[in-house]
Amino acid sequence: KMGRGGEAYTNSGRLASGVGGVVAPAPAPAPSDGFGSDGSDNGLVGDSFASSGNDRESMKVTGGVGGSLGNRNLSVRSSSSAPLKFGEKPTANNPAPARFLDNHGRRIATGFLAEFPWEPLGNYKYLLFVPFAVQVAMGWDDADHWAFHTLAIAAMRYLMACAWHFASRCEAISGRTRINLKGVSFAQVDREENWDDYILLQALVVQAFHSFCPGFHSFPLNNSAGLWQMLALHVGPTEFVYYWFHRYLHHHSLFQKYHSHHHASFVAEPVTGSCHPFLEHVGYTANFAIPLLGTWLFGGASVAMFYIYLLGFDFLNELGHCNFELPLLTKLLDVVPFARYLLYSPAFHSLHHSRVNTNYALFMPIYDHIYGTADPTSTSLSQTCAAGRKYAPGCVFLAHGVDATSCLHLPFMSREFASKPYPGENIMRHLLWPVTFPLMLAMWAIAPLQPFVAERKEILNRSPPKRPDGEDKPASPYLQLQSWVVPRLGWHYFLPFEHKRINSIIRTAVLRAESEGQRVIGLGALNKNEQLNGGGKAIVEELEAQRGGKRLDLCVVHGNTLTAACVIKGIPEGTREIVLTGATSKLGRAVALYLCEKGVRVLMASRSSQRVAKIVAEAPEECRHLLQHIDDVTDARCASVRQWVAGSLLSRKQQSNAPLGAHFHQFVVPPLTPYRRDCTYGKLVSMRLPVNDVRGLRACEMTMERGVVHACHAGAIVHTLQGWTHHEVGGIDVSRIDTVWDAALKHGFSLAS
């Protein structure tokens, strides 16, 4: 049988073997039409065979690569628990480390010594670097300054990984030349969280050789002849041994016990190349030591050799897993004769992850060509990706930073940090200011008038439109979602002299989205502030006035209709009265008008009786008596009301007037401080995405949980999925609240707050 990743399986579920038990080469791929076999223009660019699955797949016993999206916060399995078998799901009584779960939550890599020895230490494993630091700090380092060089090489390897991560996720650098378009899931980020174990392992191994191997010391800084010896030993023995070692790792037994861990990551990222079980890493380390030990035995070792080989190795390894093509490299490989036999391209190795049993080489494809395992589409795929691509139009959500530390929560800054909810008020905000403050200044000064793309993902459109050119084949069922960021932080929006420039950035974003053919641009957070642009209304009116009243070709959406719906639907059925603060705001007005029509008495807290009276006048005459103005929530009438809806901050004194067991719903930013332990507090208004319909969900939206977005963001997505053509700016149309809510439910969204 054929697995979805292209691997061959027998009826018993085992991988079919070629000569010597090695997995046989994959069959030739189907002709490409530029789209996946599921009708989508996703997966490998121009590669129909590799795009037959989706991001909800994982390596299975019976074949396939992928898995469902989701949050896998599972603890390390206790020593008393029975070991999980390959493909078995963990339970509360028998959990497993997240790093050994595929995207379906099933156990992978069950072999002997699959876990690293320091697995139980968690992040305390970094204490193993302390002896090196102590030697350097106390002046106890040896004549070779070995401890210093060990720390320096480790630090440079970390920095290189960070640089490749930034490049691979930064849309400005890699967005147009990306190879596999399916995106990375949270499960993959969790599984690869300990990607740096190899750095620690190899530092300890080299230190052991330096300490206990006679003559492995007193190295000169440089030896040019030795560097050529090192290169020859890598090109010969190391590449050859790796090729065959890698092929045997694809034998069904070794694959299930070890290498399935690596291939559970269907879409590679730079750090994916270093994510393997412990025993597999030991084998790799022994092979990669051949050039270093061989050069030493030949008398050519030097300090420079260790820097060049280890850093050069990481550079090429991360190049192969970066999942985007470098046009300059592609051109070089095309121009220089035989270059594609001597150096692989990112597309070459991406095919190994998508088709599994092809392109086994380390860095030099020549061995795949010699032994007949080179994928014939490698070169064409590389050239197609390097030529660039345009993404299908969809929905853009325009956000902004909260504080300086939130810059580090961008998906291209830190994959682990971004994969967890932003902690908000945290000691890290104070410790990281030397890094975050310059970043904030750079965002303010270097990019003053242009938003930037923070991330892309896709959501299944359950009612996709037909292809506009009239072809029989349907358009992609997936809708492109992009998050753009205005290079400003929350406090900038409260500086009057910044309003003009912020509105200019928003107008630029709208025009840019229109030129790209986007259908909807959603205004997030303060980008739709009433004092800034009247909920986006001023932006639309100005742009349409500039073109003589001609309508924009995309919809501008503030998403507050769905936000209001979420607030209302979060109130328990049967509620007869509420306290409402922020009552004269855009959301407060909509909530009050909607609820009074449902027979709910609304105590509207506001210092402006005129603005309250204006809202009361909008209500049907028979409902106006239910809208009652109060100056403050300390009013005696509030003391018996158990449902409080907070649209403005409430002090400790104000919260103390709520009765025992009251619940605080809230649409206020920042959220309320929970002073009352005898009351409950709702979360910020948000909606849970239909995660089984979303691919590329790898980062949290600020303080939201995984798979949850702000309600206004969900409103923009629903607007796009529904194909609505009206702007949603200015005040909230109360008559559309139920319509928007029903549409959100139809597309699989659910209330998360």
What are the main properties of this structure?
753 residues, single chain, 15 strands, alpha/beta, disordered N terminus, 6-stranded mixed beta sheet
Describe the main β-sheet briefly: 6 strands, mixed
Percentage of residues in helical conformation: 25-40%
Strand percentage lies at 5-15%
Distance between the termini: 45 Å
Alpha carbon gyration radius = 29 Å
| Quaternary form | single chain
The average pLDDT value, as a whole number, equals 84
Summarize the SSE layout with pairings.
Blueprint: H1 130-137, H2 146-169, H3 171-174, H4 186-191, H5 197-212, H6 224-249, H7 252-263, H8 278-288, H9 290-297, H10 303-320, H11 327-335, H12 339-342, H13 346-355, H14 366-371, H15 378-386, E1 394-400, H16 415-418, H17 427-431, H18 433-445, E2 452-460, E3 478-486, H19 499-515, E4 520-523, H20 530-533, H21 537-546, E5 555-557, H22 560-569, E6 577-581, H23 586-597, E7 601-605, H24 609-618, E8 627-630, E9 643-646, H25 652-655, E10 663-666, E11 680-684, E12 686-688, E13 694-695, E14 708-710, H26 711-722, H27 737-746, E15 750-751
Parallel strand pairs: 1-3, 1-4, 4-5, 6-7, 6-9, 7-8, 9-10, 10-11
Antiparallel strand pairs: 2-3, 2-13, 12-14, 12-15
